[in-house]
Structure formats: structure tokens, C-alpha cells
Here is the input.
Amino acid sequence: MTMMNQLSNSNSPYLLQHASNPVNWYPWGSEALSKARAENKPIFLSIGYAACHWCHVMAHETFEDSQTAEILNRHYVSIKVDREERPDLDTIYMQAVVAMTGQGGWPLSVFLTPEGQPFYGGTYFPPTPRYNMPAFQEVLQTIARLWQQDQAQLIGSASQITRYLQAVHLSPETTGNVTNADLDATVERLSALYDWQYGGWGASPKFPQPMTIEFLLRRATRGDTQARAMAVHALKAMSTGGMYDVIGGGFARYSTDNRWLIPHFEKMLYDNAQLAIVYLHAYLITGDPSFRQTCESTLDFVIREMRHPAGGFFASLDADSPGGEGAYYAWTLDELRLALPEASDQDLVIAAYALTDAGNFDGRNVLQRSLTDEQLGRQLATTPDNIQSRLASLHKQMLEYRQSRPRPSTDDKVILSWNALMLTAFAEAGRYLKRQDYASIAIRNARFLLENLYLNGILFHSWRSDQSGQQAFLEDYAGMVIALLALYQSDPKPTWFITAEHLAHEMVQGFQDPQGGFFDTHQKAEPLLLRPKDIQDNAIPSGNALACCALLQLSAYTGDQGWREISQHGLDGVAAQALNYPTTFAQWLTAWDFALGPTSEIAVLHGADLENLSELVDTLWSQYRPRVVAAIAPYPVPPGSPALLDHRVLINHQPTVYICQNHVCQYPITTAWELDKVLSH
Here is the structure.
């Protein structure tokens, strides 16, 4: 009989993965912390997430090993944390490990005093010495011995590290103004850092960086050709690379090489949300149908594989499956022949993706486009359109075959901030692409989130199996405000706007830092080593940057300068960092682009004439206009609608558009051609 540790009653899929370990794991909480203090034992804190490949590796090698468990159980209180459920703890202790070692990642392995102060840490530790890393058992034995023989030294180190973290956290932020010329110079800086051969920024592992691409696309709408060229090049490189799942849609976490060939195979909701959005915006700017196809296939993948029946979106798909890492996605030629019985079909796929018997990943082939449709057309004496159509059909056949393989596991918890990103993606795609099915999915998702994660006036960060988790963080509030405003523009019902405005008030009240910006945790949240305030973008945008974006939009809708002043204070505080480190502060640059304007506030009123209304709305959303906020309402305007709609009237009983800049309005217009002319000016 398998003995269960203290994680067996957890609701986290990641913690449940470790519930049968011989390590006597505890979840983070008063029981574990009190036990450490009562027994005067150091804490071993392990932070990871369900789809993390190296977390699985360390678990199999180490945490399932009885000898290692015996050392941990004798000398330590061991705590497991799901970083996706507790981004606050992850932020604090990741900062500590980076300060101590110069690098971080997951699994995160940190040694703490019983008071929670860190004194040693790292990421993955192997069972035997390799990769220039000590064996984990050696680390455990050494720290246990030092704790017994020279505890004061370790406590002193922990105090020093804690003081450093608190000093960094509380240090005054630099202030400064940003101009459009500064943002132009930042585009130049990004170009100097850009990999014009393979696409993207940085060496391997290479991450997609959708926030940076979104900033470039916004600059492209101002006529910046260099920003446009960079964004298009990066998006093309990723969508023809192995990181993009050309068979089933969606993107893996990152590329392990410079060429976007071999991905780290886990699929995260937040990556796919943000990438769907930038491919959508790129399509609207360039008209390139491949960008639309990538956006839609990504959203279709989410619908098929990452959606709860009631409307929420799941967190992730694992990198591993019963056949090993990537086994679900990669192909042998024998598998290809089984999936595609016709030799001519096999030949086309082999040529398109340069498939070989040897493969490019553990004897299998990760699909990366080798020849374009044009090149294949010339080779096979047919048209590019015919190649495209044939490949699309063959991809469906290959997907059907692939679905018979053992699937990677799904982390089926619903995370509010990540759902907000995906809600935004579906709302925008529904609006811009005239996809009512996408718009309906967005509406259902919003209802699910508000019904299940907003209970008795309290917003929650996560949900699973009818249980809500931790109280919401800044990223949840800010993300939801932005998502509900996006939904309001697609489904102009006052309830979406009312809820967005209400959440914004709660966000300011619960998270605002009087010194500028926002804390990541609510003022009533559990006291920790420090109250985190992470201003850098990570896999998802900084909560602070999102909050500024949200308040800027609300200010445009309402005319409330208080929203703008709070946002501007936050923006000024990170000006220098954003300009100097653009890939780390890209969401801030996007906020600056909006703040610098000019922004257009557009009010559309209508009566019974829905045909002319449809023409006006189609014109409004025919292009990507990132510095526009729009409110559409019947006349008379329903209660709870944005102040932007106040004191408007219909002209000659026709649908009427009011276009304002900084709340100074032009004469109202009633025709689509007039609207297009004004917006294109």
C-alpha cells in the first residue's frame, strides 16, 4: 500500500503529483511553518508546476528515492509549492535564488530558516554530481551538518539575504518622462539586439516574447517600418518552426535552440493567449492570411484541448507523455506512413518538413517547415494554393492519427490572470474576424470566471473541481479589467463595463503603493518575507504594467483623470528601466505607447437601423487601432454605460458616431465612408 504525505488533500495537480512521494511534503501554510519552528529544523522549499519537464526529472530521480526522502524527513521540513497557484511565493524566493546564484528557473530549490528566510538555493539538483552541480544528497547532508554545527552562520546569511531583498524592494524608483522619440529609439535598440538570421531575441533557449512583438506592432501602426519588419520576421520564424504545432495548432513554451526547431514541448495557456493576439494584430496590419491562420489554429487548439465544459480554460499541457518528452508531437517515418497511406502524400510532407529516418529529436522528427509553398509548387509542378490546400488536408489526417497516441497530462486548474489573457484573445478575434463562435466562447468564459472566481465580493486567483484557491493577485485584477473592456467592445453590454470599473476600484484600494505603482498582493493577504512588487515582465506581463494599461483605458472611457494620474505615476517610476531593457519591460512600453496617444474615444449610438450600424461597426474594426476605445449602445443609453456615451443624441434617427480625442469631440458622423476617412487620417 502506497503511503500518502501531507499533499494528498491538495487541489493542485502539481502537488498531487507528489502526494505519494516518500518525502513527507507539506503544502505552504501555518502547519508546516509551525512545525519547522517547533522542531528547529530548516525548511526545504521546492517550487514547480505540473507541466514542468525538469520538475518531473528531479521528482523521479530524487523525490521518489527512499534514501533521499529519509534525509529530508529526518533533517528538514519539506514544503511543496505550485508556482502557478502562489506567484507571490515564487517571486520572493526566485529573487532570492537569483541574488545568490545569478540564475533561476524551475524546479526552484530553496533552503530557509524556520522563519522563512532563505540562505541557500538553486534549481535542479541531480542525484549524482554532473552538469557542474553537486549531488542533491550531498547538498542535503552538508546543510544539515552546518545547521547542527554552525546554525548561527546560516541564520546570519539568511538575515543578510533578506535585508538585501528588502532593500532592493524598497529602494526609491527612478522617475522620468518618455516621449515618442524615446520609443523610436527603443525600436532601434531592439533591432540591434534582434537575430535577423533566425528571428527573435537572445540565444538558446529562445522564448517567443509576444509582449515585445506587440509593442513593435503598435509602433508599426504609427508608420515605423523597422518595427513592422522585425515583428513580421519574428512571427514568420516562429510559425514555420518546431515550436508551432502545425498539426494541432498552438505553441510550445520555448525553443531549445536558436532556430526555433526543437521546442520545450509543454503548452501553456498564457503563451497561446498572447501569441494568438499578436498573430491577429499582425494579420490586421499586414493582411497576410498565414497570420490569420496561425491565430485561428491556436484558438481552435485551445477550444479542443484546453477548455473546461463550463467555459474556463485549463492551465497547461505537459511536455511529457508515456512515450517520453515530445513523444506525442514528434514523428517517425513509419508513423507518417501509417497516418498517410498514399505515397504521394507522404512525399509531400517529407519534402515540406525535411523528414528523415534518423529524425532531429531522439530518433523522431519535429516538424519545421523546410520548403515554402512556392518552392514545393515548383518542385511538384503545381500551384502554391494547391500545396497549401493539400497540406491542410494532410495535417488533419495526421492529427487524427496523433490523437490515438497516449496524451500528455492536462493541468486542469483555471487561473484567473491566464484566463483573462485568453478571454481577451477570443473577444478580439471574434470582433476583428467576425467570428461569432469566438465571441460566444469569450462571453461564456467571462461568465464562468465571474460566477466561480468572484464570490461574495472576493476575487480568487485559481479554481479547480468546484474549489476556489488563493485570493487574487494584482495580475488577476488588472488582467480581468483589460479582458472585460475587450469583451465590452465585442459584446457591448453595460455589465461588462460595470464589472471592469468595479474591479479597478477594488484593485486601487487593495493593491496601490502610495510611493507609486502597485503591490502584487492584496493588503489583506498573508504576511510574507516581504510584500512583493514585481515590475518586470516574465512569462506573463507584469501586474503593474497591466494595471497601468487598464487604468489608462478606463480614463479614456470615463474622463476620470484620477485613473490616468495613478497610471502615469507608475509609468514614470519605470521609465529608465523600460527604455534600457525593452525586452524585460515590453508591456510597460505598450502602456507608454497608449499614454502618449493620441487616443481616440469613439461613441456609437443606434436605434432600430441595424444595417447601417453594422456598416459602421465593420468599418470601426476593419483595422488594428490600438489607441482607440469604443462604446456602442442603443439610444437611450442604458444605465451603467461609460461616461463616453453621456449627452449623445442620434442624428436624424440614424446610427451616429462621435469621435473624440482627449475628450474633445468632432462633429458627429453617420456614414461608414466618413468614419473610415476620419480614422485613417
Observations:
- Residues 337 and 346 are 7 Å apart (CA to CA).
- The longest helix spans residues 151-170.
- The domain at 414-596 is CATH 1.50.10.20 (Glycosyltransferase).
- The radius of gyration is 26 Å.
